[in-house]
Amino acid sequence: MAERGGDTFRSVYWVKRAVYRGDRPGPIARVLNRFWAKQYAGGSSLARDRDVTLEVRGRSSGRTIASPVVMADLDGSWYLVSMLGDHANWVRNVRADEGRATIRHGDATEVTLEEVPTADRPRILKRYLDVAPGARPHVPLDRRAPVTDFAGIAADFPVFRVVGLDA
C-alpha cells in the first residue's frame, strides 16, 4: 500500500478491508450495502446525485441484483469504477449481460455500461477517488498522487462509461 500518512487513515483502511475480506463483502458489508442501495435508489437526502443503485441481471440466477455505487464525472460523462477489481459480482454480471444495466436514483434509467480501455482509465480512477471516499482503502494510491501513477494500477480496476445517462 502506498504511504498515505496519518493513523486515522490506517485505522479506517483496516476496518474497511476487514468488512471486504478477500475483496468480497462480508456479512457486515452486505447489510450496509442493502441499506445504502435502498437509500441511493430512492434518491434519499442521505445520497448525493452521484450515489446511485446499480441494478444488473445475475449471470447465474437471472435475478436483478442491486448494488450501491458512486459515479465519477469527467469531461461530461459518468463512469462506474469497481473498487474491488475484476472479481466484484456487479462487474462479472455486467460483462455477462453485455453492459445492460439500470441506474436508480429516484427514477430508474436503463443504461449501457461500456468498459473503458486500460490506457484511458488513469484520469477516471483519480477522479473516482476524489468523489468516493469509501473506495480509498481499496485502491493502493493516494487520491493526490499524480495521474501518471494511476497508469500502474489501471488494469486492476475496471471502469465503465455510463451510456444513456445525462451528465
Q: Briefly note the structural class of the backbone.
A: alpha+beta
Biggest sheet strand line-up: 1-2-3-6-5-4
Largest sheet: 6 strands, antiparallel, barrel
Shape: globular
Number of helical regions = 5
Query: What level of helicity do the residues show?
Result: 25-40%
- Please report the total strand number as a whole number: 6
Question: Descriptors for this entry?
Answer:
globular; disordered N terminus; alpha+beta; 167 residues
3D architecture notes:
There is one protein chain. By secondary structure, the protein is α+β, with helices and mostly antiparallel strands. Helices cover 30% and strands 26% of the residues. The protein is built from five helices and six strands, in the order ααβββαββααβ. The chain has helices spanning 7-19, 27-41, 89-96, 122-131, 147-150, and strands spanning 51-57, 64-74, 77-81, 100-105, 107-115, 159-163. Strands 1-2-3-6-5-4 form a six-stranded antiparallel β-barrel. Strand 4 and strand 5 (107-115) form a beta hairpin. The longest helix has 15 residues, at 27-41. The radius of gyration is 15 Å and the shape is globular. The termini are far apart.
